Fold this protein.
Amino acid sequence: MESPPLFDLKTYLQAKQEQVNDELVRSLPPAESSRIADAMRYSVLAGGKRLRPVLCLAAAEAVGGRSEDVINTAVAIELIHTYSLIHDDLPAMDDDVLRRGKPTCHVAYDEATAILTGDALLTLAFQLLASPEDTADVPSDKRLQVIHAVAAAAGHKGMIGGQMADIGSEGNRIALSRLEQLHMMKTGALINAAITTGAILGGATSEQIRHLHKYAQNIGLAFQIIDDILNVEGDPALLGKAVGTDEEKKKSTYPALLGLVESRKLAASRVKEALQALEYFDKKADSLRAIAKYVIDRKR
Amino acid sequence: MESPPLFDLKTYLQAKQEQVNDELVRSLPPAESSRIADAMRYSVLAGGKRLRPVLCLAAAEAVGGRSEDVINTAVAIELIHTYSLIHDDLPAMDDDVLRRGKPTCHVAYDEATAILTGDALLTLAFQLLASPEDTADVPSDKRLQVIHAVAAAAGHKGMIGGQMADIGSEGNRIALSRLEQLHMMKTGALINAAITTGAILGGATSEQIRHLHKYAQNIGLAFQIIDDILNVEGDPALLGKAVGTDEEKKKSTYPALLGLVESRKLAASRVKEALQALEYFDKKADSLRAIAKYVIDRKR
């Protein structure tokens, strides 16, 4: 008789994605209450892996925290991620027409609506993080700490700064170290915030946060390398977005700088380092371990 | 011998604007640290009346609060106001080329930079509101209350919702009640948040907040009516932006719906109501009283 798998990631992801989706629906304005409400729902509820909120929940679990205390923050981070996609897809930026298998927000609505919808989701995220209706059993100063961490990660020294640098690098070949720095900001910062805030709200010690931060840095970079690889050889039907766009725009990417084989190796070594950072934790961190492997094996 | 004027608004405004500008400079990323930092500074430090932060400080004063406890919030609200101007000026929205007497952000930089700069200022506002470096002597749960109020005012049911409705109304003649509702969201909500959060942080009682809310509602509407009037008969050199643009876009405005004379009367009656709401307060509310008169007399 075969022994059962150590951790059933598929079932875990489905359960967490469902929990996140339910809470997203509750947090968004009701359908058909206004054009902006419809556009917000359209973009957020279009699907998506929900990687950041799941990481947030898993990080809380790893330190023995309760998901009730984290779900609100997990959802806020997904709203911020979605807003960033809407704005990145705009004609003035990446000019993408397909996202999560559906027309991008400015295609489905119009450009003005897409700009405002992104703005509204970013704003709603902070409204949720400070909501008096949040039933989390977390002291107010810890909630302020979380808001500050999320804003810093999403801001001009984090995600937005990374997107700005990314646009600036189009057509220019940049050094690997610069590419890594850029991705640490563009993708890594919010992934790191998801994990760190999950840990904070879950009651982590500073030593636990230190290890989770190392996990986050590595997982974030591995995620971005695979993203670059999928833009070369991924299946658009599975990805729900176009491929080959990086090359078209002459973007500096890991495959462009290192080739596919070396890029895969680099991603694998990052995942290995992420797993090493988790050696400090017991089996409550199994979900984080499984996600680390998923990040590199994913097809979408 | 003449008696001194009851309240020297000009000196008051200059002092407060200076205080706000100093704190804005401190809160923004340093110049030339990145393209996004430069664009943030360009738009925020382009001047401006600083009406919202001054109202925030004056509301705190009116209830006997200390400006040190409010300045951070006042600055955050000005960042949000500036981001909204940058996004509203974009080609996909109002397509304006002049703001505060200088080329708009997307003209001075480019469209992608302007979108990201707006995003960065909105995000920085919340980072400031939750900053551990804020020396305000205010309990954390009150700070959360302020963050929530600011986000709600700036969001899809407030400022962003108003801008969305404003775009939707272009070319359509809408009813006066609808126009009022639209402006309550687009301009009124953030002005109201500036006053209310100033009061909260200044230690206001709920009765004081109730009166200040009534003041805010009236001042906000009077401000918008005058804005509409200045778009008809104002001096572009003083305003620092183009006039006649509302008519070009066939926007529903107070002058379009009521004519200039009736619009002026309506603004005056709103200011009168605002002043009545202040009868509850002693002379510590003199700055708010003076600002109410300024709102209607202003030329820019």
